[in-house]
Each structure stands twice: as C-alpha cells, then as structure tokens.
Amino acid sequence: MHHDIRVRDEALAMLRNGHRNKDVARHLNVPVGTVGSWLHTDRARRNALPGRTAAPCPRCDGAALDSAAYSYLLGLYLGDGHIIQYHKHRTPSLRIACGNEWPGLMDECERAMRAVFPGKSVCRVPAKGCHNLLLYYTHLWCLFPQHGKGRKHERRIELEPWQQQLVDAYPWEFIRGLIHSDGCRITNWTVRTIGGAPKRYEYPRYFFSNKSDDIRKLCGDTLTKVGVEWTTLARGSDPFNISIARRASVAGMS
C-alpha cells in the first residue's frame, strides 16, 4: 500500500523523538512493518544503523589503539574468543566466553573490550556455565585477522607483524590474556620425611592448555622472552599443556 509522504515524514519525526514503532503505527493507522522499514531506511541514510556507526578503525583510519588492553584481549581471543557474522550485510560480533566462577576475570575482559573499542557497548549473554561478552564492530576482521572458518586448532594461527610488535611491547598482558582464557593456577603438594616425621610441602604451578600447536607456540615463545621457564606436559599422547613450575618463574607470573 502506498502512503502519502507526509505520513512517512510525521512517522519519522515521531520515531526520532523516541516514540515506539507500534505507537507510531497505531497513531497513523499504518502497518507496524511499514514503520519499521521507514525507520531502517532513515537510519541507513544517516549512517546511524546499530553497530554501523562511523567509528574509526585503528588499522584502516589510524585511530588510537590502547596497545596494552589489545595485547590482553588478543590473548583472550586466541583462547576463548570467536567472531560471528550471521549474514554478510550484518555487523560482525566479537564474543569472549568467561566462566561464571571467575567474575573478576569477566569484569577485566569487559574493561579491555571497552578500552580497545571505546564508545562500543558490551553486553553479557548468559550461557551454560559462563557468559559470552559480546560486542559489535564493523572492523573486527582488521583487528583480529586470525579469524577464519573452522576451529582454531585445525588451521594456521600466526600473528601479523603489527600484532607481534604489540605483543613484544606488552608481553605480560598477552600472557595474562592466554592464562585467563585457557590457563589456570593450581597448588601441588608432596610429603617428605624430615627428621623421621612426614612434612607436607605445597607449591603453586601454572598451566596453559590449548589444542592449537600454533597458539601454544605463541604462548611458549612469549614466556621465553620474559624469562619464564616452561615445559610441555603431555597427557597420554597429547602435548596440549604448557607447565610453569619452577619457583622463580611462578613468582614472576604472580
């Protein structure tokens, strides 16, 4: 059905003043779907579609980038992050999974996302045993070129030269991101006989576990650069674990 342009203009004026689609439709006796279409077209013309604001990209436009926060977020992404785009015309979303048992790490992840993408909204979507921290941004591909089809451990993962420079500048932030995503800190213990009496000794230890050979290599190389000694601990025939157990190295990780 064709509607007079004055009806459309009145509808847009009401929408821009905050009226809801269904209220505008009822007031003007226009189908609510038509009102929604007018609103979408108007936002597209004004470059105001949700998630499609003209936020400058650090890679494409030279916008400022919080390098330390990015290095940390890159570690989180390589461990428990992924990018989704349901349709080629939709804005891609970055999702970082954070376990519910560690709310402090969830807060830190959100702070990093807001620092790397200033002005963008971050929401927490509940899932089984965790929350997905979700953010929409058109240029996610530019900042996370490791994205691709399939699981990370089934394809090649390499850092771009500019990413490696940031990791070299902020190695501890990158390591923290990896450990916070796919790592843990545990306390081992053993009993020794001292002076004829058993005595219990406890010592902390860090693990990083990931099926991707490339991601484990990135972790190991960065640990070596900051002077942390580590070993590969295989469970069965799978060498998926990096172990940090020496006292000085554990102290450096704390």
What does the model show?
The protein is an alpha+beta fold. Among the domains are: 5-45; 182-253, Endonuclease I-creI. Helix content is 42%, strand content 24%. It contains 10 helices and 8 strands. The strands form 2 sheets. Strands 1-2-4-3 form a 4-stranded antiparallel β-sheet. A 4-stranded antiparallel β-sheet has the order 5-6-8-7.
Largest sheet: 4 strands, antiparallel
- CATH architecture label of the domain at 182-253: Roll
Mean pLDDT across residues: 87
Task: Give the class-level CATH name of the domain at 182-253.
Answer: Alpha Beta
Distance between the termini: 67 Å
Helix-strand category: alpha+beta
What order do the SSEs take from the amino end to the carboxyl end, as H and E? HHHHEEHEEHHHEEHEEH
Roughly how many Å is the radius of gyration? 25 Å
Q: Could you list the spans in which at least 5 consecutive residues all have pLDDT below 50?
A: none
Helix content: 40-55%
In terms of DSSP E residues, the strand content is 15-25%
Do you know the CATH topology of the domain at 182-253? Endonuclease I-creI
Count the beta strands: 8
